[in-house]
Every structure is written in structure tokens, then in C-alpha cells.
């Protein structure tokens, strides 16, 4: 087994994230359709508008509602409430490129199996095209 004091920060973080993924899968299965996993992607708002809202919550969003959702979703949430609110700019690819080999190795060893299980869950909403 692994001892916490023998792990580096990258391994510890990957194991922590794996436990979150495992808990999500477990809870999704136990909820039997009451919950959904939605993978992040830059056009996530349309997954909600065109997939989650109508298919899971059975909500039809009229044009005024769509316009409000699109307006709010265009604001970078981590900057909300500040004077210089800005448009969201995805930095996921940049973060992935800049990840150290230690992060990649720990992620592949500890996180990947549970992340893939979450992605493969029948309760995972795939990107709406």
C-alpha cells in the first residue's frame, strides 16, 4: 500500500481527485438517474441549454431565458463581482501543455482509472452537438 508520508504532492493530489471521481460514480449509480455527470468543455452552456435542461429537468427554455443564460455564461465566473469582469477564455489546453511529467505520471497511475469510469458512466451527459 501507499503511505501518505511517502507520496509526493502530485501523487497525493491525483489520489484525492480519484476519490472524488469514485464518489461521483458511486453517487450517480445510487441515485439511479436523479443526477448527471457533465464533463467540462468550452461550449458547456449549450450542453445545458440543449441537453440537460430539456432532457433531464424537462424544462423548455424560451428565447429570453436562453439569452439570459448565454449572457451570464459569457462572464468569467472567477472574476464575477470585480470591476473588470471579462469574457471567459478557456485555459484547459494551456494547463495540460504546462503540466509537469510528475503530474502526468501521477494522474495516469492514480486518477485515470476512476476518471475513465466517470466518463463511461451511463449517467454522464456527452457533449451536445
Structure, explained:
The chain has 129 residues and is mainly α. The protein is 57% helix and 3% strand. Helix 1 (9-31) packs parallel to helix 5 (101-120). The protein starts with 8 loop residues before the first helix and ends with a strand. The model has no long low-confidence stretch (mean pLDDT 86).
Characteristics of this structure?
about 130 residues; mainly alpha; two-stranded parallel ribbon; 2 strands; flat
Task: Reconstruct the topology from this structure.
Blueprint: H1 9-31, E1 37-38, H2 44-56, H3 63-73, H4 92-98, H5 101-120, E2 124-125
Parallel strand pairs: 1-2
Helix pairs in contact: 1-5
List unreliable stretches of 5+ residues.
Answer: none
Rg calculated over all Cα atoms: 18 Å
**Sequence of strands across the biggest β-sheet:** 1-2
The major beta sheet can be summarized as: 2 strands, parallel
Total strands: 2
Specify the structural class: mainly alpha
Short characterization:
Helices cover 57% and strands 3% of the residues. The protein contains 5 helices and 2 strands.
